[in-house]
Structures are given as C-alpha cells and as structure tokens.
Design a protein that fits this description.
single chain, 385 residues, alpha+beta
Length: 385
C-alpha cells in the first residue's frame, strides 16, 4: 500500500517537473536566441555548429533550473492532492507526513545527484567547449568575412582593406588598415602582405603584416610620423563579430574541481582571485544541495489547500526562489569584497532555508498552524500589556 502511494505521489511530482524544467530552460535559452539567430543569418554559421553551441549552453542552465523546477513541481503536486482532499484522506488513513515525504525525498535525491554530476563534470567542460567552438566560429568568420576590394569593419576599432586575395586564401596582398582603437592616436597601416594567425591555446587571432609602414598624423594635423617595418602584428577583437569576448585562460566557471583547488594552492594568487575560486568550489556543492532543502520546504507549503493550485504553486515557488537567489547573490558579493569568508557567504542561504524547511515541516507534522501561533502570541502580549 505504501509503495503504491509513494509511486502515485512520485508520478504527481514527475510530470510537472519535466514540463517546468523544459519551460524554464527554454526561457533562459531565449536570452541567447537573438545572438544565435545573428550567427545563423548574418554570419553564415552552419546549423550543426549552432546545435553544438546550444548543447554546450544547456548544462549551465540546467544547474539552476533543476532545483527551481523541483520546488515548483512539489508545490503544484502537493497543492493538487490537498485541494482534492487526498492529503486529508491519506492522513486519516494513518499515513503520516513523514511517509508522504518519502517520494518527495526520493525525487530530491535524484535531482540532487543529477545536479551535482552536471555541476561537477558537465558545466566546466561545456563552458570551455563553448569557448573553443565560438573561437573556431570567430576564426572562420574572420577569414571568410574578408573579401578583396571591400572595406571590412567586423573587427572592433579596425577597418581592413585587401586589394587582392589569392584563390587559396592563405594571405592577402596590398593591405591597408585603419586602426582607430586609440582615439587620440589613429594609425593608417599599409603592407604588401598580411596573414591571419590563430592561437587555439590563448583563443586569439592576430593579423600579421609584412613589409609595410605605419602612418600617424596628430589630432591638430601639425605632426606626421612614418614607421617602416618588416613584420607587425595586430590583435583582432572578434567580439563585434560574434558578440562574445574570449579570455586567454580558463575562467573559474570553466575549471573542474581539481583545477580550482590546484590554482588556489598557487603561491602567487591574490586574495581576490582566491575568493573567486573558493566561491566556485562551494557552489559546486551548495547549488545541488538546494534540491534537498527546497523539497523539505515545499512539502509543508504545498499541502495548504487552495483552489488555484497551479498558479499558487508557481507564485510561491517564484517567491521562494527569488529570496534564495537574492541571499545567494548578496552573500557572494560580500565574499568578493572580503567582508565574509567564502563558506559563510555561499552556504548561509542553504542554512536559512534548511532551518525554515525543518521548522515548517515540524509544524505541519504536529498539525500546528503558524498563523494560529502568531495570533496566540499577539493575544498573550495584549493581555500582559
């Protein structure tokens, strides 16, 4: 009998969880959709590359949407059972709140396991893989976007003109570059040849000019300077072409746990950099554990009978999630400024919601109304006065 009830409640949670997870992940993906469409339409990027980019983005989205979807799904499922008086019938039949919590606990443990695998393994790999993919796209776009006898302005602060590009496309001839990256000191560069050189390790693309000269005129047009060179390199900023900046090294979100701990142990690391890395270390465990705390909190909140089950469950879920992430963002900000230790700043929201969940669960288990307790407290206070 208990197994049947547990399977029934688990199914009630699973269906809205899948729907909500899909909707929330799609909403987050919509924020990147305009950039993705720009890559497809204006940059001529292949559909396969776009599909790969979307797949690489999904783990970082799922890391946050799985706990939120679980919370809202439990609220909706428990609210539906409560609104149909099924919770009342079950408890009248001798099924305790702890027994009702078994399928909820199983759901929270499953989502916890998935989230920790995603955060521990998939997120660092997918973040760095997306950087590599965007670099490859940017490199291809830089080469394919340059046409002979056409002024190319895809690079930030630089206008490039090539008189001739051979059929093999390995180099450019008769190159002129207008370099306006320094507004007070613009340059015009003329070279016989130019090559695009990419560095996959540092994720940078350089324009190497050969046998040319740099021409500079002062802002008041009174001074002119010419510098001849055999080779001259210009770092190309591809952010205007792909709408994404590339870092020379892995950021903290691209690192695995071993890489984070190894970098933190480097003697030359500054305190600010160590705090940033420590935040990522703690987040790899604190975010997955929020699944368990959300489930503990959602059960007593969800069994309150209400007619508008879905809208109430969604609204309560959004409020809880908003409060949780506001506390998390505030804690991380205090850690970054050095006001709090990383463990305190990252884990405090989990601790607060764990204590709140345990308290509400105890009150629900004892069938004590929180509002009734508040009214008694106010009544006693009024009598004493």
């Amino acid at each position: 009998m208990r197994k049947i009830i547990s399977r029934y409640i688990f199914k009630e949670i699973a269906f809205p969880f899948v729907i909500i997870l899909f909707v929330l992940t799609f909403v987050l993906l919509m924020g990147k959709l305009l950039q993705i469409m720009d890559l497809m339409v204006n940059k001529g990027i292949s559909t396969l590359a776009i599909a790969q980019l979307i797949v690489f983005l999904l783990p970082s989205f799922l890391m946050f949407t799985i706990p939120i979807a679980l919370l809202i799904a439990i609220l909706i499922a428990m609210g539906r059972l409560s609104a149909d008086n099924e919770i009342t019938v079950l408890r009248a039949s001798g099924v305790s709140l702890i027994q009702l919590y078994y399928p909820v606990a199983i759901a929270s443990l499953i989502t916890f396991a998935f989230t920790i695998v995603i955060g521990y393994f998939l997120v660092p790999q997918s973040n760095f893989a997306s950087k590599r993919l965007l670099f490859d796209i940017a490199q291809q776009n830089a080469g394919l976007g340059i046409k002979e006898k056409v002024f190319n302005a895809d690079f930030n602060g630089i206008v490039l003109y090539a008189e001739k590009i051979p059929v093999d496309g390995n180099h450019m001839e008769g190159v002129m570059v207008s370099d306006n990256r320094l507004a007070d000191d613009p340059n015009t560069i003329i070279a016989k040849k130019a090559f695009l050189i990419s560095n996959p390790e540092s994720l940078t693309v350089k324009l190497r000019l050969e046998n040319g000269s740099i021409h500079t005129v002062s802002s008041d047009f009174k001074n002119y300077r010419k510098i001849d060179f055999k080779t001259y390199d210009i770092n190309l900023d591809l952010s205007s072409a792909i709408n994404s900046t590339r870092d020379a090294a892995k950021s903290s979100t691209d690192m695995t746990m071993s890489e984070l701990l190894s970098k933190m142990s480097n003697p030359g690391m500054g305190e600010a950099a160590i705090r940033e890395l420590a935040i990522e270390v703690h987040k790899k465990f604190s975010i997955p554990l929020s699944c368990i705390f959300f489930a503990l909190l959602a059960l007593p909140l969800g069994i309150k009978s209400h007619r508008a089950v879905k809208s109430r469950g969604f609204a309560v879920g959004i409020i809880v999630v908003t409060l949780y992430y506001l506390l998390r963002i505030g804690g991380e900000a205090l850690v970054e400024t050095g006001s709090l230790p990383p463990a305190v700043g990252v884990w405090t929201p989990n601790l607060i919601f764990a204590l709140l969940g345990i308290s509400l669960f105890y009150l629900a288990y004892k069938e004590i109304s929180l509002w009734h307790m508040v009214k008694i407290y106010l009544w006693r206070k009024k009598i004493k006065n």
